[in-house]
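haha ok so turns out i had the wrong file open the whole time. this is the CORRECT one, sorry everyone. sequence first:
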Amino acid sequence: MARGRRRRRGRRLIWLVVITGALVATGMVIHSSKPAWYAKFWYPLDYQIAINREARVDGLDPALLASVIWRESGFDPAARSHRGAVGLTQVLPSTAREIAASPNPPVGRAADLADPEVNIAYGAWYLGMLIDRYGGSVPDALAAYNAGAANITKWKQQALARGGEFRLPDDIPFPETKAYVEDILAAWAVYRRTYGDQLAAPS
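then structure:
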């Protein structure tokens, strides 16, 4: 009887391993393919009217702007960083004041940065400005959005002094910024695919 119980336990263990392996494999397939129901769970979307409007104003793909908001705040309008960045797009109040003083500022006062619509307008303006500054390079702009334009300039100068080229995101020396750029570029494709009917890219 003892041998019979051991055999039954052995068979149950084998089945448990097989079932666990199948579940893990299924989970990996779902994670890599990201079907719509799965993507919407991990990559939520809100404020799409404001995102579409401000993306159109600043010549951005709204899926890119949504990806930045996802990575910066997880669509939490009350988000605050330890550095004092505010809201959905995590704009610093000092940056907002500089944006407000520019020749063509977005709609809304810098003092109202906690307002989601104002925050999206300021974040979109800043991202669009950085993309223009870097000749249309989204990875450069994202790295500057996270680490500051001064660091991008320094890294490029250091690469040039070594006789090489600064490649993004591979050569970013800050792990946080490297992960930030990689995360948003990956999310951008997911937002395009998952919310294509809600995030209309400008023509």
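The mean pLDDT is 88.
again sry for the mixup
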